[in-house]
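To assess whether ligand presence alters the predicted conformation, the chain was also submitted together with heme C. Input:
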Amino acid sequence: MKKTILKLPAFIFSLACIAASGHALAEENPITGKDKHMGVATCASSVCHGKPAPDANSYALLNEYRTWSREDLHSKAYKILFNAESKRMAKNLGLASAHTADICLDCHADNVPQSQRGPKFVIRDGVGCEACHGGSEKWLDSHYKKGVTHAENLAAGMYPTESPKPRAEMCLSCHLGTKDKFATHRIMGAGHPRLAFELETFTANQPAHYVVDQDYLERKGQIESVTMWVAGVYYTAKQTLELYNSHLLTANGMIPELSFYDCHACHHPMDKKTWRQTSIEVGLKPGDLRLNDAALQMLVGIAYIRDQEGAQRLLQLSRDLHVASRKDVNGLRSSAKAALAQLASMEGALLDRNYNNNEITSLRQRILSKSAAGQYRDYTSAEQAFLGVETLTLALNQSERYSAQMDSFYASLASESAFQQGRFASVAKNLLSTMYP
Ligand code: HEC
Ligand code: HEC
Ligand code: HEC
Ligand code: HEC
């Protein structure tokens, strides 16, 4: 795992918290929406978002293009399809080239159909403004005018990127994948890196082309980092369960889609026995393949804070899912549907209100206790546990106080191939006793 570089919390404004779920989930995301994408060049003129430095007279910085083109990897997402790694992947997959293949462009560019590309649209812009903010056809001419409200922009088709649920769904469409675009194990096998994602950390790591200041809060409301984190975990679990019900599960005939499973279950050296036996706890037998349920398990932990009964039911349903996964496809699919229904019934409790300090403190204690007890045994779950603890510590304004301890917690995850569950657990144990003496 790469080192995360979380920002320190911005100055806290004494503004009343606006509920985090200000907007209903948009039915269409920037990629499935039907409006035309006018192209980055349309946004980037020097009188619009292409200024060399922030503009003090505007609520938006207006140098967004500069930040995106110089610092944000999304502007390089298309270009990397020409590098040696991509070329090798294309060759392994039998593609003419990576930069012309939809299976790469769907995530590495704003690959909307030709009919939705405006006059200045060019595919080589990669993941451009409208890949996240939605096609601007219907709001381009109005969104900067005096008196036009954010609500009016949204009504004209601008995507509500500020809102946790839609943001999670949009980022995850590429960082986890959907039934229509997915980094399958075949693509991984050809050399694609494993996709790891956590919404709050990735939000912090994307070079910000906006500032959350007083007027931002007035226009868009305050969205707490912890709510953002929970939304990310919730949608990762939800989209993962939905994928089990897609064609992807059985697209390879006898062998299920291996990207749905814990990568390190297969990819670890045999001369070092790990004896993780995680599988047995969830009703699997030794040697059975285990679905990657990192997000679902994290969500169970979060849910205990607000809806214990729901959390218990979800835990049981996740066990049913594992048991069903070794029997037959239809059983797995119906178990996934049952878990999805349970998730839906808990969404309000988990996401409609921001988390207060008591909740954040006990959430962190819970994750650390489970880590110390060795319950996050696979790398992917341990990684999610670390990122959760980091986000919660930051939200409690304690990052500086615990920075040395957090560094060694991180160090226990630094190498995927040399990950030792026991070390992760013992560092977590130390952290637990320091933070909760
Ligand atoms: C489901 C979306 C998705 C698909 C499909 C996909 N990618 Fe990616 N790819 C990503 C994401 C997201 C990352 C960044 C991962 C990270 O750093 O967390 C990435 C990273 C990469 C990287 C490493 C980038 C770097 O900066 O080191 C390469 C190379 C790459 N992809 C090439 C390809 C090629 C070639 C294809 C087609 C065969 C492809 N990708 C298909 C989403 C996708
Ligand atoms: C990978 C996704 C992504 C890309 C690409 C992207 N943005 Fe954003 N943008 C965001 C997010 C997330 C926010 C913060 C939430 C919000 O305010 O909507 C944001 C916020 C903004 C804001 C709001 C500032 C405010 O004060 O309200 C503007 C303006 C903006 N982006 C313009 C651009 C422009 C112009 C580009 C292209 C040069 C661009 N964005 C590319 C995700 C993206
Ligand atoms: C259209 C697909 C797409 C969408 C939507 C998208 N991303 Fe990405 N993202 C990518 C790809 C592809 C890369 C890898 C680019 C590269 O390495 O050149 C990437 C890279 C990143 C990175 C850098 C990761 C690293 O390894 O350093 C961050 C951070 C990130 N994305 C955050 C976000 C966030 C936050 C959102 C939602 C607001 C988002 N992305 C939405 C495709 C997407
Ligand atoms: C059920 C076991 C299994 C799971 C789970 C699994 N893989 Fe694989 N993986 C394989 C096999 C088998 C190969 C082919 C090995 C070969 O060609 O020698 C392979 C090949 C690969 C390769 C190419 C390696 C090479 O040296 O050629 C990569 C990269 C890879 N997998 C990544 C992943 C990632 C990332 C995940 C999780 C998202 C994952 N795998 C999950 C069994 C698995």
